[in-house]
């Protein structure tokens, strides 16, 4: 029983990682990873919405008519996103300001809707919780890794603390849009390489 | 009147080139990576998205101004916008199927997928943030759609050429596409000094 839950949890971390394997949820991945703080906040916000909507949907799946399930899922997700947005605005106004548009856009993150359709609408609640935690964590660690690389190379700091000394000439391109595309491309290529060596 | 026209024109040009939705704002990356294998399908996708974007800009401006702001219901913004977009896409699909079966066939599966394109919801949410009036909003929607089409068609052209390129095995598929997009984003940075409002 516990072992099965652990398999569900582990799934999202590596084998079916939403970003590097399934390549979904790209917009926030690219847009908010200019600093580690933003990347971490986005990861936590997305994981929270994923977890709460998976709990609700897996619990009430038998009451949701099959024909209107997608609109119902989107409505449930949108409710939790509104909640998250107001929470961040009230308690972490700085983070809410720097993530701005990308908090409401969690509604259309394919990762969240995809997990409801593929997992939560077919499995019991406890398995859905394990899946949401795994997927959320898998999404968050890639965001944090990517934003750490970009912040370190682009500004010479991590979490706003200067790591590389004054000798380092920051590569500003890394925190601009072009750097986001290129560093994610290299990261996915690197993961492909590691996976092939693993096999 | 002349002044108003100038502002509208500037909004249009800056959305197409300077603040391109895909390459600068990171909105609509999923279709950009998913539907950019062939120029022809990319162009159809761009057209359908432009159409929905223009309609969405008009519809959400009206709803935001006359319902959400008028009755002080800002917390319903996300829920109501996503419903409007989903039903608009459904409506456009039904309309095109009735009026032009040829176009309907050409667009095929791409039409329903537009609902989950984050560029559309992003557009709807940007309009109240920017405080545009009705005409400017519609032009903003049109410009965003044309910018989207431009980026996705250019990308499809590059990827068609790439078919014959000698790409390292581990970079094939998504990684090389992302790196290409990065180079395109760099090229679009050249427009950044073009317009300042």
Describe the structure.
The complex is a heterodimer of chains A (199) and B (197). By secondary structure, chain A is mainly alpha-helical. Chain A has a domain at 2-13 and 24-147. Chain A has helices at 2-13, 26-31, 36-60, 69-91, 93-99, 110-120, 125-155, 177-198, and strands at 157-158, 161-162. Chain A has a two-stranded antiparallel ribbon with strand order 1-2. In chain A, a hairpin with a 2-residue loop joins strand 1 and strand 2 (161-162). The longest helix of chain A is centred in the C-terminal third of the chain and has 31 residues, at 125-155. The radius of gyration of chain A is 18 Å and the shape is globular. Chain B has 197 residues and is mainly alpha-helical. Chain B has a domain at 30-157. Helix content of chain B is 74%, strand content 0%. Chain B contains nine helices and no strands. The longest helix of chain B has 31 residues, at 39-69. The chains are: A mainly alpha (199), B mainly alpha (197). Chain A binds chain B through residues 23-24, 26-27, 30-31, 71, 74-75, 78-79, 81-82, 85-86, 100-101, 104-105, 107-110, 113, 173, 176-182, 184-186, 188-190, 192-193, 196, and chain B through 23-30, 33, 75, 77-79, 82-83, 86, 115-118, 120-122, 125-126, 129, 168-171, 174-179, 181-183, 185-186, 189.
Please name the defining characteristics of this protein:
heterodimer; A: mainly alpha; two-stranded antiparallel ribbon; 2 strands; 69% helix; globular; B: mainly alpha; 74% helix
